[in-house]
Specification:
The protein has about 90 residues and is α+β, with helices and mostly antiparallel strands. It has four helices and three strands, in the order H-H-H-E-E-H-E. The chain has helices at about 5-15, 20, 25-30, 50-55; strands spanning about 35-40, 45-50, 85. A hairpin with a 6-residue loop joins strand 1 and strand 2. The protein is globular and about 30 Å long. The N and C termini lie far apart (about 40 Å). Bound molecules: zinc ion (ZN).
């Protein structure tokens, strides 16, 4: 039984295993020049980009909220355990 290892390898292949960002806040990511959170759903591979202002508009979300604290669920496959990353606007 090696699902965690396989899953980590899959995430790495998808370009963004990011335990690091799970423990960072919106403010930290913003300070480092990133413009949005990139969420990749592990079930179907759907990618969703969420700009900070959009996230900050959610109830209970502030600049010091950890990126891992968002309740994210894929509309397509229903998975709620997406891979988190951050992106800068090109
Ligand atoms: Zn999905």
């Amino acid at each position: 039984m090696l699902p965690p290892i396989i899953s980590v390898a899959m995430m790495a292949a998808m370009g963004g295993i990011d335990d690091f960002w799970r423990t960072r806040t919106i403010a930290e990511a913003e300070d480092q020049g990133y413009s949005h959170l990139r969420v990749t759903y592990s079930g179907c591979g759907r990618i969703s980009d969420l700009p900070w202002p959009l996230l900050l508009g959610r109830p209970g979300i502030a600049a010091n909220t950890f990126l891992s604290n968002f309740k994210l669920r894929c509309e397509k496959c229903g998975r709620n355990d997406p891979v988190l990353g951050v992106k800068k606007h090109a």
